[in-house]
Amino acid sequence: MAEKAIKEQEQRHLEHVLTEIKKAKTRAEERIKTAKNDIEDINQQTNDIHLNTTTYSGMMDTAMSFRAQQQMLDERHNSWQHAADHLATLQRLEQKPYFARIDFKEKGADKPESVYIGLASFSDQPDHFLVYDWRAPISSVYYEGKLGQVSYETPVGPQEVDLTLKRQFQIKDGTIVTIFDTDEQVGDQMLLEALGNHSSTKMKSIVTTIQRTQNEIIRDTKDDLLFVQGAAGSGKTAAVLQRVAWLLYRYRGHLTSSQVVLFSPNQLFNDYIDQVLPELGEHNMVQMTYFQFANRRVPGLHVQTLAQRFAASQDETNKNAQRLLTSLRYFEATGRYAKHLGHANMRFRNIMFNGKVFISKDKIREIYYSFNNNYKLGNRLDGTKEELIKYLNHRVSTEMRSKWVEERVQSLSKEELDTLFANEPREFESDDKEFKFLARKIVMQAFEPIKRAINHNQWLNINGQYLHLLRVTPKLVNLADYGLTLDQWQAFVDQTKEGLKKRQISATGITIYLYLYDLITGKHGQRDIRYVFVDEVQDYDPYQLAYLKFRFPRAKFTLLGDLNQAIFTHENSKSLLRQLSTMFDPEKTKVVQLTKSYRSTKQITDFTKHILLDGEAIEAFDRDGDLPQVIESGTFDGSVDTLVATLQKYQQEHDQVAIIGKTLEDSEQLFKALEQRGVKTTLIRTENQRLVKGTIIVPSFLAKGLEFDAVIVWNANNQQYHGDDERQLLYTICSRAMHELTLTAVGKVTPLLDQVPANEYELINK
Ligand SMILES: Nc1ncnc2c1ncn2[C@@H]1O[C@H](COP(=O)(O)OP(=O)(O)OP(=O)(O)O)[C@@H](O)[C@H]1O
């Protein structure tokens, strides 16, 4: 068929679908109206129910009427909600009913079928689908591959079809703007257009242009561990958000968004991605950073923040100690240590009352170890609690005889007496009985905090226990394997102890601390969580991941990372994969590599990949742009001037421009210098700030996962970025740029660019 005729025919089809959507919208609106009226009527009737409370049967009748009304109300509310959800879907479909069509022949069928694919399903009659949800099994064919024999997964097993047509549409305001017929996986033309767009403060869904390998990630159901290793900008985050949406659809009725947890690198990133799922018509999953996850459980401790972690300089001993503490071996050692606590060495705290020891730690220890040897730690804890409460109750009668209680009873005011008596009869056989009654009440009240302390495990000395674990570590693992001597280790533990006195704990320490606490208290973790996603997994260590697995014992894990972007864990990230592979059943582990980078222009991707020593595997998507610029200036002021000039140029062409400094101090210094020149920018100081439109200045460790139209790297000189340690950091920040990239340097630019071919960037000396 000629192109024009195809377009006309498709336009007619589109109009038909739009008409049906409009009709469905009217029906949904009517249902909403009816439900609303019904609710008003029922509320009116409820008000009219005659309250008859004079007789028992009257009361029963009244109660029954209320109950019946309530049931009717619930029913109407449900149908209202249902209709409102449906209407919201129809409104989304009305904007853009579908984006693709596939024609295929099933085995044995004589005629091909056509299916249109959109953001949600739509049928005009039962089982007559005008649009299929992009997550429906058949829609997978669209993302899978070329024309011809294609197989796709269904709940009852794989199916094969002969795909004869794959067509993409761009639709605007009810009109088909363009049609592409393609036999490639989702056509480059459409992807090129999607990638050429400007960035914004919110990430967008990639549903119309999901690539084949991404589709594989999205639809994986078999594996307990899905590890996605991909270059910067290869769509790991984008794919994984689509995966959440897909899982919610695939397991609808069995899986809700509250059973899905996503660990993100920082709060800014949370904010950046929080529109993707709602755009797809789904509720957001639980989103948090590891810091938030850990910190909310230990409100009394200050866990090292991202900025502190980034700024902490590490000597050799510290690095080695970290290597030991973050290893899977140490995770296992912590488990062994906890088991042994069932026999000895548990640390306790006195329970205090009025400034004196009320139950001594020795007494608690005696109770704790009085149970049978094969008691698990959790049972031992519960048993001890029970005994402590019994002991407390026992102490009530003795305490009632103390002087302070007598004095207290004598001095009770009338109001206090009223409260103590409450509704109880005030007739007592004797004064003594009355005294006892009041004394008991007073003691019970005074013991309330003790009861709470017992129930909240305040008699456990977790700080002491954690330090003890560290102290005995040389017996649990061989220090020499981590290049440590006994003296070095002891010094490290002393340093940790000092920190703990000031209520400070490192990012590594907190996980060990929590794991130990969970083992002692016999916590089993959150069994209701079914899927856990960890983005930027290269910044996690094996211990943390093992802990997450322990905390979410029934969850399947999807881990996304780029070992080249490890900015906290440095060289350790290489061993992460190795250690990880021992944690999951190899039969149920899948590793997917994404090598194509979609975010940046070809020029930017080529430049950034050569910052890495082994970046060759990274493949640029063929989208043209300007060469990155490197501008060296003799002085700080000169460098700020060149930055301002570049910034003004970028601001004319783009919406989102970011200036990325190495540390927070660098960023602050630049912010002030720009302010003095009257250049307005927003400085992002902490991860709790929001991303705003316009130009922002952001320190490197907060730029993770984000992207901007244009990026200016502030002062990438040879002092700021010199060691190989900083190679991955520089790669990470440069790869945030979609369309333009400039590096400025006060003095000579970093030697980390030495192996970037000279024709891949423009060097300017000012
Ligand atoms: N299939 C696709 N269709 C359209 N755009 C895509 C596709 N895949 C990725 N992108 C776009 O490429 C950019 C980078 O994607 P994303 O942020 O998910 O990459 P990433 O692998 O998580 O990157 P990084 O590790 O650098 O944070 C985003 O703008 C995303 O929308």
TrEMBL record:
Keywords: ATP-binding, Coiled coil, Helicase, Hydrolase, Nucleotide-binding
GO MF: 3'-5' DNA helicase activity; ATP binding; DNA binding; hydrolase activity
Entries under Gene3D superfamilies matching the protein: 1.10.10.160, P-loop containing nucleotide triphosphate hydrolases
GO cellular component, one term: cytosol
Signal peptide range: none
Keyword hit for rRNA processing: no
An annotated GO BP: recombinational repair
Transcription regulation keyword on record: no
A Pfam family this chain is assigned to: UvrD_C_2
Domain UvrD-like helicase ATP-binding: 209-601
Binding-site positions, ATP: G230, A231, A232, G233, S234, G235, K236, T237
PROSITE patterns the record matches: UVRD_HELICASE_ATP_BIND (PS51198)
Chain coiled-coil ranges: 7-45
Name the UniProt record assigns to this protein: UvrD-like helicase ATP-binding domain-containing protein
Organism: Limosilactobacillus oris PB013-T2-3
